[in-house]
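Hello K.,

You asked for the raw outputs rather than the summary table, so here they are, unedited. I folded two proteins back to back in the same session to keep the settings identical. This is the first:
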Amino acid sequence: MRRHGLARPVGSRVLGGASGSVPPAPHMEQFVDSAAFSAWATRLTRPFIFTSPFGRRDFALLLFVGDESVTADERNAISDAVVACGCRYAVCAGADCSSWDDAIDWAYIETDPKDDSAFVMTTWHEDEPIEKVAEFLVFSATYEGFGDPPPRRYLVACVGDEAVYVAARDAVREQLRLRSEQR
């Protein structure tokens, strides 16, 4: 089954946005910057422009959706940008998270990969507390070919709700602190 109505967002891989008709990139907040990890957070609101602070270098993503009004076309455009920006592991949680998991899978498949060098693993975590989802991201978002040793770059992207953004960012910060203590 193919997705319909796809349009890659113009300028979706550029931080800061450009003048003209391209909306500015979302605010990015770096909340962990250590020798072991770099972690950033962003809150996406309409028009839902997804960017990565890592350029095209690989990263693990926690995508938490707090806005149930996101359309299928918006979800697909965000998913396309997630894959284009270098995400290698997408942990989806919140509203309709299994559809987000599927959309990111389709976005990867539609790149027509010739090998697994840019493979994107996805998981969805329906009705799980944000602390458990953050723990999964930091301690389990790895597979052969990505994250061995554990990923160094993490992005928390929340669609919609400010309170969820703060909770997700803080939960990932705490899990990264715990992971650092284990090193």
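The second followed immediately with the same parameters:
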Amino acid sequence: MILGILQLVFYGVSIWISQKAKPLGNMPYRWGVYVGMISAWMSLVLIVSSVIGLIGGHWVGASALLVDALLAALSSFGILRRRRFGVVALGFAYLLLILIGPYLAPMPDRPFLLVVTGQTPSITALARQAISFPWVVSLSFTAAYLVCTFVYFKNRWEWMQPANSA
């Protein structure tokens, strides 16, 4: 309950702050600030999930979550600093999250955190999951979000600073 309230507060604050974002070149950067803040929130959730996984002895799964958390934190930092490497890191973070997605499940006692399941799903189980309605809807929304986000950053790429500039 408390984590749910914190999430609502964080999303509300993220939207409020992103409305005040300075433009990038001659284009608004509100969505960029929002994506950067959401990536920070995602990295926090993934870090907590990976620490709990490491404590539980799930080294491989927790390590995958930790790598994804570091990519999400790097993307957040880069996007909020208006750097190109942030967009690239965001792509890798979501790619890794999609690749390990079939192995993730909500923690039983902490539903906002993730745990890597101990067993590898069979091909038939993955196929059954892939054609299930919730998974198709989730993947559709994720794909739409990623396409819109990367088109947004593509249109602002020339005004974003490369990683080696000051």
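The two ends are 43 Å apart (CA to CA).

Happy to rerun anything if the numbers look odd on your end.

Regards,
P.
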